[in-house]
Design goal:
4 copies of one chain form a homotetramer. Chain A is an all-alpha fold. Chain A has helices at 4-12, 24-43, 46-77, 89-95, 98-111, 133-136, 140-152, 154-179, 190-201, 214-250. Chains A, B, C, D: It comes from Agaribacillus aureus.
Amino acid sequence: MISLKKRFYKIVYPSDSRKDPNFTFDVVIITLILLNVLAVIIESVPEINARFQRGFERFEIFSVVVFTLEYLIRLWTCTEMEAYKKPVTGRLKWSLTPMALIDLLAVLPFYLPFIGVDLRFIRIFRLFRIFRLLKIARYTSALYLIRKILVNKKEELFVTLLFSVSLLIVFSTLMFYAERQAQPEVFTSIPKSMWWAVITLTSVGYGDIYPITTLGRILGGLIAISGIGLFALPTGILASGFSDEIAKRKNPGK
Amino acid sequence: MISLKKRFYKIVYPSDSRKDPNFTFDVVIITLILLNVLAVIIESVPEINARFQRGFERFEIFSVVVFTLEYLIRLWTCTEMEAYKKPVTGRLKWSLTPMALIDLLAVLPFYLPFIGVDLRFIRIFRLFRIFRLLKIARYTSALYLIRKILVNKKEELFVTLLFSVSLLIVFSTLMFYAERQAQPEVFTSIPKSMWWAVITLTSVGYGDIYPITTLGRILGGLIAISGIGLFALPTGILASGFSDEIAKRKNPGK
Amino acid sequence: MISLKKRFYKIVYPSDSRKDPNFTFDVVIITLILLNVLAVIIESVPEINARFQRGFERFEIFSVVVFTLEYLIRLWTCTEMEAYKKPVTGRLKWSLTPMALIDLLAVLPFYLPFIGVDLRFIRIFRLFRIFRLLKIARYTSALYLIRKILVNKKEELFVTLLFSVSLLIVFSTLMFYAERQAQPEVFTSIPKSMWWAVITLTSVGYGDIYPITTLGRILGGLIAISGIGLFALPTGILASGFSDEIAKRKNPGK
Amino acid sequence: MISLKKRFYKIVYPSDSRKDPNFTFDVVIITLILLNVLAVIIESVPEINARFQRGFERFEIFSVVVFTLEYLIRLWTCTEMEAYKKPVTGRLKWSLTPMALIDLLAVLPFYLPFIGVDLRFIRIFRLFRIFRLLKIARYTSALYLIRKILVNKKEELFVTLLFSVSLLIVFSTLMFYAERQAQPEVFTSIPKSMWWAVITLTSVGYGDIYPITTLGRILGGLIAISGIGLFALPTGILASGFSDEIAKRKNPGK
């Protein structure tokens, strides 16, 4: 006979149960999370908030109750897993995993209104649970492939990032010295100049801050052209990563 | 001897006739569609509309007559196709296909000016007829190749899209909480903040809305850099898809 | 003994002379063209033009004399080539080649000041002669490779372009109907809306024209995201083209 | 017994010492450089500078002393290297290498305050020493791979750059003639027009300068679309470069 804890465990940790995983609970929770995310988004519109404030409050209470129950059941049944077997230290270890912390922080602000800090924005991070849905569909292999390539190519990508950041710092400093005379109230400091540099290097270009001197424009043109490399390098790295991985699957012996 | 219906069928459905497809009719219709699109575009310029209003009206009547005839002939001859063989239910089935519905919606507003719906809205659908252009292109292997790769890689592309949308929602929410104090009339709500996020993530950067606080700028820089990944990932996926497909064609045995 | 015409021919058409090509003349002419381009650029700066007007005028006369002589010698000696062998019709045929026309249009405005139209901007097209310099250096194979891939992949690139243009027209029209009520003086016509669409789809985003209604922003977000595809598709096509060409060179038998 | 010079040499040139390289000194110096870069950045913020001016000055003196000692020890011990063996000419040759010049220029302004020119921005170039850190970590192979591909593909990349620059000059000139009548105070000269062109071609699009005439907008749309090619070509080149290099590593015989 199967214990109550084991049954609950199978429900709240479906992916860990080897056979007959039941994703119903996961789908329900993720739907509730998505509704919560939607609530956070539309609640921020003043007109909507004014009209449906009562509804949002009720939905909030309902969600927090469900999420709290989920958290408690997970905390209770996590000892079924090999890694968190010990009743006390196992549960403590589990409660310090990133996902458990986000789950706790998602409900805690409701119970601790007196702590002053508004931690409700943490709830938005639960959105990433949406990726659990991929387990149900057949998208897992795609997700796994993308993650594998990012891990395989992490060194090349890190070097690209390091080079970009160095370029960004050097250009920001040069630009600050080039423009601070002409636009003292725009290029006020190097951190401000770095904001300009990152927005130019990524080719966003808001237009709130841009060079007006000849030297500044030459530097600006150079960093804009460097931005092309910033797009081309990681793309080339990832493209070869994908090709490589697909080739490996075909000729596993190689 | 070939019946009249079969002859018409061969003219209006050239791609379904196996041998000797005659594209003359298709070219005429698509030219007329392109002229219609051109008319819609230049008609919107007030000065041009004021001068050539009469010409536009006549061209409209002529086009609608031709498109109506085309629709009726298609409806009449569609029973030649295996899928729509039955006189009544077959024709009904055909008339509910997306292409047939668009064709109907392209001419219907002209005959039903008395119905209470906003007619101008329906008229826009006529513009989708431009996608018939792709019908000609369908015969080139290029379109087939692109579509095949998009279908092959749909899982990877979907995961990328899902990740991008999640990122967009998370950053929009964080940005709203970071900027609403400093710019309450700009970052008015999370949906507004999402507009900022999508325009930044795609590296468009209009400059109508951008962060001004230090925290906001750090978040903005992070999402701008994430935008590079949003370009690099699908490009890498598609690049490997094209390479793979070309390799397959050479070594079909593999 | 070699005739005078043959000698001149060898000088002005170095790449057509099989052995011992002498590029001295080409280098001199291209240097003069580059100096002309530089003159056109810096002449446009009012302060510089005011100070060195006399010098620019003299340089102009000198350049036109040299370019005219070059043109006449080419016209005279072109009959040495198999394709333009006949004295009259051959020379006429040569003078109608694009490069000869640009060469003629580059000097003609000087002799025909009374024709009224300012054709001096045509001179800038001679800049593309700079690619002749690549013949001298060892960059020819790179230029040839890039051109070959663009030709090989022209169908895929054309389908991408066709799809982009269709998308652009459809979104421009929808955007015009979505925004013209809210911003009648900004979205004045569909051509104006197309300017917005092309600047958004290419992720430039000047910020002179952007949607402000909810529907317009949704459309704007969709076209901005489509822009990622517009970058990813040709990049993927070209990347596979380069890989394919390199693979061919290694295994020519395949 | 090992001489003092040899011992110092081993410390300041760790990568040249074949066995038992000791990177401690490198890590210390690079940390100090990073702290200097950080100081340059935050020192530029007026509020921070006002409060910690004394601290920055002291840190400056400390840094310059360390960097001067490092420079002198390097100058003294460089004769241990084969290339700079001769006491006088060898040291002179070493002091004229780019890295040695940057090291000298990084400390010189401190000792020569009377030279008038503010050379402190040169110090920022020392930031690139950060790449020495990669030697310690295992990122060297990634850095080496990226550099190798950039070198391998330098011809294709150079042709792309040459073509982009030509396009930029041609479009800038055409745009100047198209817009100078409508916006004489914006498109003041061709160099100004080139600033517009580079910001559009790289898809940054600040919005400080953009065409308003119909012809100007058509040119602007064309250059914006050309910008896609400017991203696609180098990306395709690099992607094939990475794929090629990875394939080579697997089948070294090929």
